[in-house]
Specification:
By secondary structure, this protein is α/β, with parallel strands linked by helices. The chain folds into 2 domains: 85 residues, Orthogonal Bundle (Helicase, Ruva Protein, domain 3), CATH 1.10.8; 211 residues, Vaccinia Virus protein VP39 (Rossmann fold, 3-Layer(aba) Sandwich), CATH 3.40.50. The chain contains 12 helices and 9 strands. The longest helix is centred in the first third of the chain and has 17 residues. The radius of gyration is 21 Å and the shape is elongated. Bound molecules: S-adenosylmethionine (SAM).
Length: 305
């Protein structure tokens, strides 16, 4: 039945129909079937992601068509995220290399980076910023790209993730980024920042076990975070003041674990960021508030071992 498909737009439309019919899970980078089919089609044809729509009517050769259909089949049968099949994910307007060494970049923090962290920074000067749990390097490298006068550190526990982040640093000419291996803050003794941004693992054990197959291609180290999703976030809240200037800010994504965090620490003043699509479980904390509530945070974090 694919004999009737002749043009680029035919292939995109067909792929999207097949993806929807197969009940794929979207959201790793694009959140719908049409965008994923477009990404995979243009990748297989070696065309730019922003190809002018006029080329949609261009006919493809039999060989090109078979390459596109082969990628569609892998997406459907193996459920591999489209970003891994294409080897690329867009984040904060930048093209990152993406593969199974690190999670596909998709954090809403991209929107905060693009709006210069305002109104949260409120004109505070940033000299040094940290991207804790950097994965592919997307948050740290994007911060460095949009703020060329900042010195940005990106740290991760995973050697694989750091290897990919290093490739992305070169790819995006991020000379003001330093990448380090560290278990949270343990390798950062004596380092101080005005801004710490982090998208740590925050999926509960039960949710991680129930995730759709697409997520099984991603490193579990990037997802799993205990029974309530807060094992890492609590340690970050506990130790961030040791590495923040007194006027510094911690910006942290906890996704669905927001509810559990607010229940555990109702007295801690956290500002939950409003994104274009609403709240996405990202909070902003002032260093002074983290210091004031450190005893209670420490008690909760230490109990996690
Ligand atoms: C949710 S992913 C986020 C990756 C990237 N920042 C992003 O937004 O796509 C979390 C990352 O934390 C890293 N990680 C997990 N435990 C860690 C730890 N104890 N110390 C440092 N990094 C850790 C994982 O390897 C993974 O790359």
């Amino acid at each position: 039945m694919t004999a009737e498909l002749t043009t680029i737009i035919d292939l995109i439309r067909y792929g999207a129909s097949r993806f929807n019919a197969a009940g794929l899970t979207f959201g790793h980078s694009y959140d719908n079937a049409l965008d994923e089919a477009t990404q995979l089609t243009l990748h297989a044809l070696h065309m730019p992601h922003d190809l002018s729509p006029v080329y949609g009517q261009a006919r493809v050769t039999a060989e090109e068509k078979s390459d596109v259909l082969a990628l569609f089949a892998r997406r459907i049968n193996e459920r591999i995220p489209a970003a891994y099949l294409a080897g690329e994910a867009w984040f904060a307007g930048l093209s990152f290399k993406s593969d199974a060494r690190a999670l596909v970049p998709r954090s809403p923090i991209a929107e905060l980076i693009e709006r210069g962290f305002e109104p949260w920074l409120g004109g505070r000067e940033v000299l040094r910023a940290l991207d804790l749990c950097t994965g592919s390097g997307c948050i740290g490298i994007a911060m460095a790209h949009y703020n060329p006068d900042w010195h940005v550190d990106g740290v991760d526990l995973s050697d694989d993730a750091l290897a990919l982040a290093r490739e992305n640093k070169v790819r995006l000419h991020a000379d003001n980024v330093r990448l380090l291996k560290s278990d949270l803050f343990s390798g950062l003794q004596g380092e101080h920042y005005q801004l710490i941004v982090t998208n740590p693992p925050y999926v509960t054990n039960a949710e991680t076990d129930a995730l759709p197959k697409e997520y099984s291609y991603e490193p579990q180290l990037g997802l799993r975070a205990g029974n309530d999703g807060l094992d890492l976030a609590l340690k970050i809240l506990r130790d961030a003041p040791l590495h923040l200037d007194r006027e510094g800010l911690l910006i942290c994504e906890v996704g669905e674990a927001e509810k559990a965090l607010v229940e555990l620490l109702p007295e801690l003043p956290l500002a939950w960021v409003e994104f274009k699509v609403g709240q996405m479980g990202v909070f902003v904390a002032e260093c002074a508030d983290l210091v004031e509530h450190n005893a209670r945070i420490r008690e909760l974090a230490d109990a996690r071992g």
